[in-house]
Structures are given as structure tokens and as C-alpha cells.
Amino acid sequence: MEKLACKTCGHLILPTTAKKNDGMCALCAKGMITEQCQVCHKVVYGVSTIHNGTRMCLSCNQDHSLKRSLQWRELCSDTLTYIATDSIKIKLFPAYTEVFVTEQCLGFYYPLCSLQFQWKGDQTTETVHIVSHNGLWFAEEGEPNNPYESFSMFDRVGDKYKLTGSLTNFSGWKYVQALYKFMEREFKHLSQTHESKQAFIEAVLASYPHKLGDFDKEYYIETYYEYAKHKQACHETDFLPYELIDKTVFSLFNEEHFIEIGEEIIDYREAGGVDRPLGVCWSESFFGDGNHIFAFLDENKDKVYLVNQYS
Q1: Separation of alpha carbons 224 and 94, rounded Å
Q2: Is the dihedral of CA 50, 51, 53, 54 positive or negative?
Q3: How far apart are CA 281 and CA 55, in angstroms?
Q4: Least crowded by CB within 10 Å, which of 52, 131, 270, 277?
Q5: Is-above-0.70 flag for pTM?
Q6: Each residue of 41-69: pLDDT tens digit?
Q7: How distant, in Å, are the alpha carbons of 51, 98, 137, 216 from that of 153?
Q8: pLDDT higher than threshold 90 for residue 132
């Protein structure tokens, strides 16, 4: 029986297969199209695109990922050799105005802690903040730019942050700041008259004077409540030496966690230069869930990358 060429990939197939699949082989009919790998130049199924636009087969992609993963592990392994660990100080729940240069991120990002340290051989004090957008989901129609679903990038302006990106990536972004400011004004009263978290959520929704759009407002209010309660219970207002900080609240780089988390942004690192992992705020000490925030400082020390990781 003479075979026919698949009209999509050109592979020879049985006439019965061609008739069944409108002239295509079974794989092409299922959408599994062959393509030439731009690295090994083999024509294969399952070609994918990496961050720089290169189209490569699974085998080349695995080799590429392994190489970058090993480079990242090597970088992580000597991070603390560059930091004077005895210089490290931590401040929990810094004020928003201590962290950001404008009101742009108010209600979107909660300040969790500020970290001060010196590089070995350098008396200059570096200040890095760890903040979280916990309580907000990403919109399906969001732009493919900063902040990303897995991490946010901030420019360092002196000792403070500026976000270069689009807060419209967050679902409900039109309503967030006004709702946040309302809860800031009313928290003391509503939390005293409504003792449970659920009662507080219901009270906010009942008393808020404006309409709220279609986003997960209950979760946003719940997260605010948990953050405000943790902040209220924290009586330390100054920077403390690292050794006095509970390591279930904040901990410095450790190989077990940071190598795993760092590989999530390794594509961006290769393109943009994420350099030193610093520390992590463990979410349960600030909220009610496990959305931990890992801080990375780039090689030029002018940007901070904050990776959110659910446990």
C-alpha cells in the first residue's frame, strides 16, 4: 500500500490514517506539530520557547536548565561570605513611608520587615525591605510585565522603593487603595466591636460606602485583618540584631530554601541580572497563610527582587 505524505509535517502515513485525520498524521491531528530545534537542529515534536525567544527541543531545554541551575547553586553557596553577618539588623512592620517613595503601592504591598547590613570590607549600610502583595490575585488579563505572578521587582531609590510596572496586573486594582484606606481608618473601632475575623469582614462590607467591583474582596479584607492583628501584637519598633529575631519570622539565606526558590526566576536572572539571595519572611508570622517572601538583590545593587512562594 502506497503511503501518503502528511500535509502538515510531511511524514509518510497510511491512506487510512490520512482519510481519518483530514490528510494529517495522528500527531499533527492532535496538535503535536514537528518543528526544528534551533539548538541541535533536529526536527522533533514538543519544541518550546525559553525566555530569550529560542525554540528548543525537550532534550536541549533540559541541558540548558541544568547548566543554569548549577550556576545558580554555585552563586548561592557563597552569598553569606560577602555579607558581614554581625552587622545585620532587622525591623519588623516598618511604616509604609519608610519603605516606599510614593503612595503608588499603598494597599497593594504590605511592609513586612526592613533589613540593614554591610558588605564585608565596606562600612556603607545597605537597607532592603521585604514586602508582600498577599491578599491580591493576578488578573487574567494582566500585562506580562512587573509585577509578575511569581515575583515583584523594585528600584532602590536611596533607602526606599519605587515600583516600575503596572499595578493593573492585580485583580480589583481600581478599588484596592480606597478600601485599604477605609480599613486603616476604621480598624480600631471595627476590630473592637467585631471580635472574630469573619465578623470583621462582614462589618467592613456592610459599612464601606462605595461599590466594590468583581474581585476577591473577602480574601483581601481577611488578609488585611491578619496583617493588622500581627502588627498590633508586635511591640518592637526599632532595628534589632539578627540574633534576637525569631527565625520563624525572618531568616537569612539558607541553601535548602533559596536554591529552590531562586530557580523560579533563573530565566529572568540570566537576562536581567538577579544576584545575591538575602533573606526570607515566613508568611505565617504576618498573615494567616504560607505565602513566603524571598528577597534577592541584583548585582548592581539597584534593584530588589521579591519572590512569593506558597507552602
Answers
A1: 15
A2: negative
A3: 37
A4: 52
A5: yes
A6: 887 777 777 666 788 887 887 776 666 66
A7: 17, 18, 17, 24
A8: yes
